[in-house]
Amino acid sequence: MILNWHAHVYPPARQTAPEWQGRCPMTIENLLRIHDGAGVDMAVVSNPIHYVKGQSAEATLAAIQEWDEYAATLQQRYPDRLVGFASSVPGGGDAVLKELERAIRDYGLRGVLINSSHNGAYPDEDNARGFFELVTALDVPVMVHAPAYSFGEECMRMYRLVSSVGRASDECLALARMIVRGIWEQFPTLKLVGAHLGGGICEVIGRMNYAYELQDEAFFLGSYAPMKIKHPPSHYLKKMYLDTVTYNPPAVRMVLDWMGADRVLYGSDAPPLTSLKPRAIQLIRDLDIPEGDREQIFWRNAARLLKLPLVGALAA
Length: 316
Description:
The chain is an alpha/beta fold. 44% of the residues lie in helices and 10% in strands.
């Protein structure tokens, strides 16, 4: 059994945007084709809504509604193949929160994707607390995915560095901010999944730990006030989940060392990175880990987060 946590589709109207030059890879037909070819049984279908960057609140809400409705249609059309995620913007206001509640309660979508930042705002900010109140009340997983562009983008407009470096950096920063700003202190039941191995959060967590532990000794590094956490940052890291989209075996092994196999989810980012699908699967198959751990990564962890009945069925 393979359940792909990380695959993107756009609504039909967005697939014809000029930048795609008539060959947008993020179509449902393309997703089903490549999953059939690779032997993937199910997929979480999400949309990072990159096209709302810089848009008005009204246009952003309309784009979110467009996606949520399409995601619900796909989930209904392919109930044995797809799980749909809503898209949302923490801090986007009451109308965005109402739309998210509608997408989960009325449409039956099983989780929500947010970007690690949106127009320079990050999910830990005070005006986003209502979002976390809602998702913990709904008890749905939150996937944190990079935006199209983020801080420092003016230095990265060459050699695809925005995608390869900038997006990962933004994800790492967002997760780090959520830790030190006490999101898990306030919302201990939050089910949060960082895309792309959390953008390198497991590599920097040791530095975050000593920044926390040294306190006055490291006064010259800047303030650590107000204190919002009761434990070292790694304590909260281990409350997250991370997906395996990296294509780098040593990085996956490091994440497994930090998180444990029960906190890691198989993902491929395909679509849109269609040709990388077999490599993403082979990476997990090549890991020197017990078969039970491999099953957790390939499908059990995701199925448990999504509350899919197949967990019990396949265990029986």
